């Protein structure tokens, strides 16, 4: 005779999850696919693009990278245009339209009316939300020295270096989380299997 021993709650939990996925995996995949398609479709609309661009700026770790990417694009493109002899206001209009993140582009668009009113570039950009002080200082030096495009290139190089550092930090955070998650899933399956085999043996 064998004694009927109740399974541990942990094993029941793992089996319950496995059973749920087995019964609902197809509907879950369909729902995820539909959600993904809907997100891609919404991303093509102006309102949807603004929403997702704003969402990226609210996600920890990702928001810093998104802002640095935009700053690099802004400074490097503006440097190229001004070095080519295109007036600052016209260059700013081109750069704002070219920025990938439309929420950040809306911030930079505030520069144009300020400069049109006669403000210096450095003074106008100082009032832009979340603008790094180092960029304000570099633009001020560039205006004073007559080498604005050169200072913008220096700023772009600086932000590229920050992106590299932040990417390394993000990778260092994500890798152990992924490893621990995989270890937890595999370990759970192994423990549940061992427990079931042990309980199924006759006493």
Describe the 3D structure.
The protein has helices spanning 9-43, 46-56, 62-83, 88-98, 102-109, 111-116, 121-126, 133-145, 148-200. By secondary structure, it is mainly α. It contains 9 helices and no strands. Helix 1 crosses helix 2 (46-56) and helix 8 (133-145) runs antiparallel to helix 9. 81% of the residues lie in helices and 0% in strands.
Features:
single chain, 203 residues, mainly alpha, 9 helices, 81% helix, 0% strand
> What separation lies between the terminal Cα atoms?
7 Å
Instruction: Give helix and strand order, one letter per element, not per position.
Output: HHHHHHHHH
Total number of helices? 9
Q: Residue-averaged pLDDT, rounded?
A: 86
| Gyration radius, in Å | 27 Å
Helical/strand content category:
mainly alpha
Identify the overall geometry.
Answer: elongated
Can you count the beta strands?
A: 0
Which spans of ≥5 residues are poorly predicted at pLDDT below 50? none
Q: Percent of residues in beta strands? A: under 5%
> In percent, how helical is the residue content?
over 70%
Summarize the structure.
The chain has 203 residues and is an all-alpha fold. It contains nine helices and no strands.
Topology:
Layout: H1 9-43, H2 46-56, H3 62-83, H4 88-98, H5 102-109, H6 111-116, H7 121-126, H8 133-145, H9 148-200
Helix pairs in contact: 1-2, 1-9, 3-4, 3-9, 4-5, 8-9
């Amino acid at each position: 005779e064998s004694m009927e021993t109740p399974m541990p709650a942990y094993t029941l939990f793992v089996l319950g999850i496995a059973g749920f996925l087995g019964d609902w995996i197809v509907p879950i995949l369909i729902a995820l696919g539909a959600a993904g398609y809907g997100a891609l479709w919404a991303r093509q609309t102006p309102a949807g693009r603004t929403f997702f661009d704003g969402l990226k700026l609210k996600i920890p770790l990702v928001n810093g990278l998104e802002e640095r990417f935009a700053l690099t694009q802004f400074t490097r493109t503006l440097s190229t245009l001004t070095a080519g002899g295109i007036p600052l206001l016209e260059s700013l209009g081109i750069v704002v339209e070219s920025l990938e993140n439309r929420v950040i582009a809306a911030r930079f668009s505030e520069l144009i009316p300020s400069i049109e009113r006669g403000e210096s570039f450095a003074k106008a950009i100082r009032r832009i939300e979340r603008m790094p002080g180092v960029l304000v200082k570099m633009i001020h030096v560039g205006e004073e020295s007559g080498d604005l495009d050169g200072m913008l290139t220096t700023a772009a190089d600086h932000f590229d270096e920050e992106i590299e550092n932040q990417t390394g930090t993000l990778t260092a955070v994500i890798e152990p989380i992924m490893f621990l998650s995989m270890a937890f899933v595999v370990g759970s399956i192994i423990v549940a299997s061992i427990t079931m085999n042990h309980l199924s043996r006759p006493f």
